[in-house]
Amino acid sequence: MIQALSKTPAEEAFGVSLPHRRMEEWRWTDLRRSLVKPYPPHQNVVIANKDVERLIACSPFAKLTSHRIVFVNGSLDQARSNFTGLTFELGVPSSSAVDDPVIHLNSAIEPSGLTLRFDASMDVPVEIIHIATLGAARAMALRNRIEVGEGASATIIETFVGEGDYVLNAVTEIHVGAGARLDRVKVELESHDATHLSYIDCTLAKDAKLNELTLTSGSALNRQNGNYLFAGENANALIAGAYLLNGKQHADTRLVMDHKVPHCTSREMFKCVMDENARGIFQGKVIVRKHAQKTDGKQSSHALLLSETAEFDAKPELEIYADDVVCGHGATAGDINHDHLFYLMSRGIPVAEAKSLLIGAFVGEAFDGIVNDTMREAMVAFAENWLTARKAK
Amino acid sequence: MLTISNLHVKLEDEPREILKGLSLNVKAGEVHAIMGPNGSGKSTLSYVLSGRDGYEVTEGSAMFKGENLLAMDPNERAAKGVFLAFQYPIEIPGVATMQFLKVALNSQRKARGEKELSIPDFMRFVKERAAKLNISQEMLKRPVNVGFSGGEKKRAEILQMAVLEPSLCVLDETDSGLDIDALKVVADGVNALRSPDRAMIVITHYQRLLDYIVPDFVHVLSAGKIVKSGGKELALELEANGYAEFVEKVA
Q1: What pTM does this model have?
Q2: Is any Cβ of chain B less than 8 angstroms from the Cβ of A369?
Q3: What is the ipTM of this complex?
Q4: FRET label pair with B100: which of A198, B37, B191, B247, CA 20 to 30 Å apart?
Q5: Which chain A residues have a beta carbon less than 8 Å from that of B93?
Q6: What is the chain B residue with the closest CA to A356?
Q7: Contact B182, B153 (CB under 8 A)
Q8: Structural contact between residues A272 and A282, judged by C-beta atoms closer than 8 angstroms
Q9: pLDDT digits (tens, 9 = 90+) for A236-271
Q10: Does any CB of chain A come closer than 8 Å to the CB of residue B92?
Q11: For residue B48, what is the nearest residue in chain A, using CA coordinates?
Q12: Which runs of consecutive H residues, i.e. helices, occur in chain B?
């Protein structure tokens, strides 16, 4: 029996109820408890140009692409956005049919957003960046849709940067058409006081390919949900993830690979680094529907715990209704390998630097799948900076 | 260069002593071979000299160039000039060999107050040495020791030695797992590094390696002590008669 819970101030402000630990999928991330005060949507914030510019420059891809769509405090900043050569439609796309607390909250906050269509291949990356400037505690939401047309290819970067105490809810709908390819990198560098909630609702058509990396390193609390529907045969998805967390940061990823048709491949690989009191969670579910024979679905999550008080939880789930499939999961958690450390030190490398090399190598595996060299190098450089800051502590 | 006096070592979490009063004096330019049966303490000696965790020195000392070697961290020992060629080189996924060499060399130079090498200078420096050891550019791009064959790993160890130019090289069972051709390449690499300023301790179970790396002195290690020392002919004697004589003596 579930008793109705009395509304929290945050729930009052949002007008929807928040997920909590008695819901299985939210057992590690109790939003009801975490959001201790109201975050009213659509607050007016005085925006200083120099702050926006400075925050845009925090993107690891700031110098890498000129095709940038900028949202500031939940609204599109047309003046700073460059739509040259892009096919787009402003306005929130048709709402996703998925029943999920993050999507419900997104609707309640009344998001802004757009639809980007790639009917022809585009070889330069397009960055969608959201900037939250310092202001009153508030909630903001985005809902964007990305469509890659038949046979086309595109590279999308989604970057989140901010300062202050806020809730950012971002829903991205993705459709990768037949024979199309999408390379997607999401970088979450929100404020250390922020809560970042996201949902990816992705559909892959026949022969579609999705190659994705999400990097989580900014917010106090990150919850990213994703549903990947394999709707056409021979679709292929590589979903890589990296956490670089410290302090009391909390990151929880829950992904569902929904194999509806035969001959599709899904790969999930998360490399999670937790320092100090940080906590990382990876929940991966692979569903293989009755007719989805010859599905190849594998997931792995690996955690590197850099302190006694860091924590990692992994929850793999396989739900298989077909009988001719290859599915598997693996999870590891541990601290730095002492043999590796001794070997590096025996060559003259001081302990702090040796550790940085090993942590960088560990997390770097998540970046290996990024095809664009400069984007991959930007991720490696970001990890190096994170490690340098750690060493300096 | 290295003076080991009455060294007693045990494992940190076991009472059993492994080295039981080992003494050894190594001067610059000398090559010392340490031979002994399995379990005599050969690898322990190499680890204690290089500073691996897990060992406890209960008595005795090891002085290197007049300083207490045992008080230093492994990286400090390396910067002072100690190099251990591992019996089983460690695979380190995700760290490219070239990057590893660069960080190692520059860390040592920094510790000694020398200028770091520029990238072009460094590349040239490594490529010259790699070519002599039949190490390809492709191998240098691969992660440290990952997917290397046994012979490649040993050549990579010698390459590290050639790049880091230590003054004391400790080679732990460098011949293990090598066929005769690979052994020759490795031995040539080691011999090329022999110099009046550099000493070597060659730890080996078999005499075979010493045909190629000819030592000035041979020591027999048994049950944690050096029980006999001599010239290179001692190795041949051991090859003919085995270690039985020494093992029995102790028992």
Answers
A1: 0.92
A2: no
A3: 0.95
A4: B191
A5: 361, 365
A6: B95
A7: no
A8: yes
A9: 999 999 999 999 999 999 999 999 999 999 999 999
A10: yes
A11: A346
A12: 42-50, 74-80, 97-111, 119-132, 137-141, 150-164, 180-192, 208-212, 233-241, 244-250
